[in-house]
Specification:
The chain has about 200 residues and is α/β, with parallel strands linked by helices. The chain contains nine helices and seven strands; from the N terminus they run βααααβαββαβαβαβα.
Length: about 200
């Protein structure tokens, strides 16, 4: 008998735009354009972001205001709904619970595992708190131990350990260099294409 399937998806770049890129567009701050596609070391990336936020006096309310204007990627809501009809889905993201509420509402509240921010009484972001280091890989490994077959999809460096740990992993619109460096993970360019790969790999009807 085939094991039931759980699909683990990255959020930003797969289902939604990048929050930090949207913030960069709204503020005109080029330093916030950098993502895990550019700096694979997550701590280095977040320290850069925190320094910019502090220097520019950007607080949690300012970022939330930007997130409130954001919408999921075209086709993402329908893709996620169809996928959840076929199997369990968990969003594994390096974003923060304090920011994602408006996007989760538009995606009809899927399960998401992410991190938290340390915010003071004035709304200044003092630090970030990882829920667990390398949480995407650990989450996939834990679900596999529960006797599920796990499929995963992501778009960047911080998704690699998740893709390696999964029974089958796929890229969704990755930078060309990353896709070329890891050819074992098929590259998909649209949600229908990703759905076809997931259905095939998971034996989903």
């Amino acid at each position: 008998m085939q094991s039931p399937v759980v699909v683990c998806l990255d959020m930003e770049g797969v289902l939604t735009p990048e929050i930090w890129l949207e913030l960069s567009e709204k503020t005109g701050l080029d330093d916030l354009k950098v993502t895990t596609r550019d700096i694979p070391d997550y701590d280095e990336l977040m320290q850069l972001r925190l320094e910019v936020l502090s220097r520019q006096k950007i607080g949690i309310a300012d970022i939330r205001a930007v997130v409130e204007t954001m919408k999921p990627l075209d086709g993402a809501v329908e893709f996620l709904a169809r996928l959840r009809e076929r199997c369990q889905v968990i969003i594994l993201s390096d974003t923060y619970y304090e920011l994602v509420g408006p996007l989760m509402k538009q995606l009809h509240y899927p399960t998401i595992f992410c991190h938290t921010l340390d915010v003071d009484d004035a709304g200044r972001i003092r630090n970030y708190v990882l829920r667990q280091k390398d949480q995407k890989r650990h989450a996939v490994a834990a679900v596999k131990r529960l006797e599920f077959r796990v499929l995963a999809a992501g778009d960047s460096h911080n998704d690699l350990s998740m893709l390696h740990e999964a029974d089958a992993g796929f890229f969704f619109r990755p930078p060309e260099a990353i896709g070329a460096e890891y050819p074992q993970f098929p590259v998909t360019r649209s949600h229908p294409e990703l759905m076809r790969h997931l259905v095939s790999a998971g034996g989903l009807s």
